[in-house]
Amino acid sequence: MNLILILLIIALIAFVLYLVLVKKVDLSSLFPNSTQPSNSFEKTEIFLEAKQKSFEIVLDAKNEALRIKNETDEYVRSKKNEISDESAKITARTTMLESRESELKRKEEDSSTLKTSLESKVKNYDELIHAEQEKLEKISRLTVEEAKKRLIETVDRELKEEYGKKIRTYEEELKSNAEEKAKQILIDAMRQGASDYVVEYTSSRIRLPDEELKGRIIGKEGRNIKTFEEVTGVEVDLDSSPGDLVITCFDPVRREIAKLAMQRLIADGRIQPAKIEEIVEKTRTEMDQVIFKEGTELCHKLGIFNIPKEIIQTLGRFRYRFSYGQNMIEHVMEVVKIGVSIASELKADTEIVKLGCLLHDIGKVIMDKEGSHVDIGVDYLRKFKINEKVINCVAEHHEDRPFSSIESAIVALADHVSGARPGARTEDYESYVKRMRNLEEAATSFDGVDHAFALSAGREVRVYVKPTQVDDYSTSFLAREIAKKIELEQNYPGVVKIIVIRETRQLATAK
Question: Measuring CA to CA, which residue among 11, 18, 110, 26 is closest to residue 61?
């Protein structure tokens, strides 16, 4: 009711303000003198309009008050319902927690009772066992430890006698059969792995169809042969054998590229520096395909598949690699045949032996790494996640560490048989290649050197420098520094001649 009264007062004030401000009514006119009759004022148009307006305002105020009251009642009712729901939930949770608490207390009491019962039973059992042990000790006049010791000694003595008899019997049988069996295995393995060898050295010979070709190969002021030797890294000999051209180089792949390029130049007839560079580059690209083909054929001949293409590419280099005069492809094929034969007789894993024999010398054809071919090969194979047993065969085939399996011992034996048989190897090629490589690396270790080639079996090193970094006056100083480094760090027969070459080329194109 207080709210309605306030609204009525506000409505009255609003009505008065409406009359004064909007209708411009003089308030004195609303309150005439007593001499004027009141009913005349009530009948005026302004009074009727104000009365109607006040009635509307009062009606609106009642409606608004009723609306506010309904909303308030609805809000209070919803809040009561929410509080009631929450109270019910809390009551249910409290009941559940009380139930769980009582359950836990009951279980705890049961556990305590069970624990007490078990402790009592264990104590009784211990007392019974102790009493029985005392009775047995009195009867046998031995303690428990003494009885155990006597029993173990008796059993051990009997077992040793039995084992000794069986071991002596086995040893006699093995001694009578092992030597003969081992000889037979090795003979069969070598018979299956026997193959012919064509021993190649560090030179390739090309028959010239015409003696006049030598002049064209040399070119004006030796430009052609100089360019050929520079881009291929080989040495060309035109004088030692009439009618023949001899190419020498310690790197077999480099020598083979030079040989094929020279044959193509002779067939083409256009022997000039630009043509030489073009054909050599083309031959070098084709050689990668030839090497991959050689690796694929090697794997197919041995029945080995599903190995990474990168390893097949590396295996293809065996075709141009010789170890002590023994061609690597022929050596690997022989080792695989011997190893598989021995593994079959000894019931070993032939697949592990076959892969180990194939990959045991792969480090010998990886030229960009330092270290022994065993370590290089192991590191290389681990990049391709090769079976660890195969990697162990590679790591142990020179007995640098103890054999980890019978397969490793078989691979080492097969390699030894292949390399040590009479006529298999003719020279220490490994140390020769290492000496050539060390000479080239000594030269390329200086700033400004573009590339270097060791020639004439290590008696000469040709060093090509970058003309933008080394001037003509510095070439003699560089030659002396390279010679001094070789003298201090390397061993070599005779003398080594250092030739530093600097040349500038200018290219232009006419359109």
Answer: 11
Q: What is the pLDDT of residues 60-98, one digit of tens each?
A: 877 887 888 888 888 888 888 888 888 888 988 888 998
With beta carbons less than 8 A apart as the criterion, state whether 203 and 241 touch: no
What is the architecture of the domain spanning 198-302? Answer: 2-Layer Sandwich (3.30)
For residue 206, list its beta bridge partners: 245
> Distance between CA 328 and CA 360 in Å, rounded?
11
Give 350's contacts (C-beta < 8 A, 6+ positions apart): 340, 343, 344
Distance from C-alpha of 144 to C-alpha of 150, rounded to nearest angstrom: 10
- Looking at the structure, give the CATH architecture of the domain made up of residues 433-501: 2-Layer Sandwich (3.30)
Which of 296, 311, 295 is CA-nearest to residue 383? Answer: 311
Alpha-carbon dihedral 101, 106, 108, 109, rounded to 10 degrees: 140
Burial 74-94 (b: 16+ CB within 10 A, else e): eeeeeeeeeeeeeeeeeeeee
Are 281 and 307 in contact, with CB atoms under 8 Å apart? no
Question: Measuring CA to CA, which residue among 496, 498, 491, 492 is closest to residue 446?
Answer: 498
pTM of the model: 0.46
Report the alpha-carbon distance of residue 33 to residue 101 in Å, rounded: 89
Residues whose CB falls within 8 Å of the CB of residue 330, separated by 6 or more in sequence, listed in order: 195, 197
Rounded Cα gap, residues 129 and 135, in angstroms: 10
